[in-house]
Amino acid sequence: MLRIFTAILFCMLAASAAPAQTARQVPQSRMEITLSYAPVVKRAAPAVVNVYAKTLVAQRETDMFADPFFRRFFGNDGSFGRPRERVKNSLGSGVIVDPSGVIVTNNHVVAGATELRVVLPDKREFEARILLTDERTDLAVLKIDMKGERLPALPFANSDDLEVGDLVLAIGNPFGVGQTVTSGIVSALARTRVGVTDYQFFIQTDAAINPGNSGGALVNMRGELVGINTAIFSKSGGSVGIGFSIPSNMVQTVVESAESGDGRIHRPWLGVQLQDVTSDIADSLGLARPEGALIAKLHPQSPLAAAGLKRGDVLIGFEGHAIESAQEFGFRVGTAKIGESRIVEFRRGDKDFEARLKMVAAPETTPRDEWTVKVDSPFAGLTVANLSPAVAEEVGMAAEAEGVVVTDVGNGPAQRFFKKGDMLLFVNRSEITKVQDLRDAVAAGPSSWSIGIGRDGKQLNIRLR
């Protein structure tokens, strides 16, 4: 009797000492195998919408109209051969994240759209306006006017709680066939070489994701949003069981910036150039294995420098999360808020250290003097600004870059020659070091133009009449 009582007491103590967390287990019986995802779908599917975008695309007429023989019959007004516009329709998915009608989708779904419509699961259609687009995360936040009506919305989950093997559902509108649900597991975390966004840090899943699923929801078994489906790895154009989603922690950061109302994304700035630690670098630094992110360059005003870090230090942790790559460190910082403090772990020599890192906004050391060119010229439609760490952060350039950069291309003639992030080097032999230099060059109104552009580390020269 005493043995039985002792065994019962031991079991009770063991149960009370067990950690309070969700148990993960494989199905144990035939009954468990017949369980259904239907309750999760009923909670999540009403918050997943279709996004229709109309875009005007320039299309050049056939070259035969440049032939003088044809011009005799079709006119000689000079219109043939000029770019003409056609309407391109595209379809994606979106997720309602606020009952008032705030919707998140992929930036590539709405990029360049002249008209946006959102179709709810109950088939009602609404015009949508863009609150914020962010090319660097490939996310966009839309708003529809519900006139006070409250919509079903998905709550955000903490994507850091995901583990490889967790069950997930992907909900969207693949190929335009209508709302579809596919199931799978989390195949991998922290995928960093997908080539879709600047923040290379994705959830990989084998839940079927196809064209049209972009912007749709990846949900856990509680019906919470864990990611926004954004890309597939495919040679055929269809799903092969390798899909990628932007983690919900990054999505939530972008949505909060959109709801702040100023139309800009607010991210902490580091002013650092990082490098992945390779096997060779690990050997040279005396590391047991390749891990972390090596500080290759620091801006003088970098908060890392203020926290005591130096060039050559290796970042190995951020708020308790191990850092395996430069992309992972960038993601961790990108989900923090300006004004907060975070603990960063780093290795210097053969010792590990901790420092408290202040999350700050990029400084605007030079007035941006932003100017949208409206004068009839090859620059018409461009928006340009003087570079500073703040402007460089917005266009994805190195913090120490100087000069004049294109921050927006617009819809004018300039879109034929320029891209966002281009540096203006010279115009008609006059060096362009500040926006005022470009104003003066355009005001001169020359009959011909010689323009130098810096793009991807190369110089392009354009001559126009």
CATH superfamily of the largest domain: Trypsin-like serine proteases
Please give the count of helices.
11
CATH class of the largest domain: Mainly Beta
Backbone CA Rg: 27 Å
Structural class by SSE content = alpha+beta
Q: Which spans have pLDDT < 50 for at least 5 consecutive residues?
A: 1-19
Strand runs, count = 25
Main sheet properties: 7 strands, antiparallel
Q: Using the coordinates shown, work out and report the CATH topology of the largest domain.
A: Thrombin, subunit H
> What form results from the Cα inertia axes?
globular
- Kindly report the average pLDDT value: 83
- Which percent range describes the beta-strand content? 25-35%
Identify the CATH architecture of the largest domain.
Answer: Beta Barrel
Count of spatially separate domains: 4
How far apart the termini lie comes to 103 Å
Detailed description of the structure:
There is one protein chain. The chain has 465 residues and is an alpha+beta fold. The protein has four domains: 101 residues, Beta Barrel (Thrombin, subunit H), CATH 2.40.10; 102 residues, Beta Barrel (Thrombin, subunit H), CATH 2.40.10.10; 87 residues, Roll (Pdz3 Domain), CATH 2.30.42; 94 residues, Pdz3 Domain. The protein has eleven helices and 25 strands. The strands form four sheets. Strands 19, 20, 21, 22, 23, 24 and 25 form a seven-stranded antiparallel beta sheet that branches. The N terminus is likely disordered.
What key attributes describe this structure?
Thrombin, subunit H, 6-stranded antiparallel β-barrel, 35% strand, Pdz3 Domain, 11 helices, 465 residues, 7-stranded antiparallel beta sheet, disordered N terminus, alpha+beta, 25 strands
